[in-house]
Write a structure and sequence with these properties.
Length: 348
Amino acid sequence: MRGTSVSSPLRPLRAVVAGAGIAGLAAANALVADGWEVEVLDRAPALPRGGTALGMWPAAMAVLDGLGVGDPVRSHAVQVRGGAILAPDGAKMGRIPATRSAHLVSRARLLETLHDALPAGTVRWSRPVEAGEHFPGADLVVAADGIHSRLRSGRWADAAARPLGTVAFRGVVPGHVDTVTETWGRGAMFGITPSSDAMVNWFACLHPDLVDPGASSPTALLRTVFASWHGSIARVLSAMADDAVDRRDLFDVHVPGRFVRGNLALVGDAAHAMAPNLGRGACESLLDVWALSRSIAADGVEAGLRRYDRMRRRRVQRIVTAARLVNRVATTQRLLPARTRAARLLLA
């Protein structure tokens, strides 16, 4: 990658990136390639080793290619095309067209690949970033510190995470599947996809009314809710272990106004965390980083930040709204026949 904004007879431009997730590590790679001096700060002690599969759509893979890590990601990924929306008995409600392809790679593999492409010592682990913190001498600050971003809370007090009203569970189990499926029932959905490393990726969303607080464990709850659903789900449920289930209430983020204030730019979940139903969160984070780095390379920091905001804000906020809608539709407890007809029409 080449840039025009970073040459200086005095010193390289300096960036501080808050967060060593996908958006933060990708931003660091893009800026380092353009000649920036970059420091990434993260409160964790090291890279996480867990996590489920992420779908890298073609536009996201193009960004990874631009960062020089596309081929390593492909070497660990499973490519899939299309999929199906199923009813709880396994009947097909609709299909995801085969023209929609993605590379599925584990979050841990993607993070490791992005981290290892950086110069040694770029990331400072066990270094939390606080609300309102300033970074003297930084020409650019990138807030990639997630859905509950401390940097965002210090500058955008009216942009707190919004509850979606659903509860998500996710994990991986040993095994193999060839296709992507989502099964929609009353107040619940269950997704199954291939993953890298000979694992099967699964995820579930439940309406809160179905989340029994008296359940002895996450697996016990899921096995109760999905007890009568089709065999592919039963096989995943039987392979689950309690210590490998991630449970969380779902939120999204809407930032009123611009994604940029001064020399601080929001990217990834800090800017637009979204419901997982469209499988676009990680991809949109990578597209943010590409737009940010290319805009600054072309126009310099100040004008480049304005261009980044114009390129990304409205587009990605529409995706946040769409993901929220699909999350509601997939876990609705009402009007199920109408939902089935709509799915068949939209995905036919």
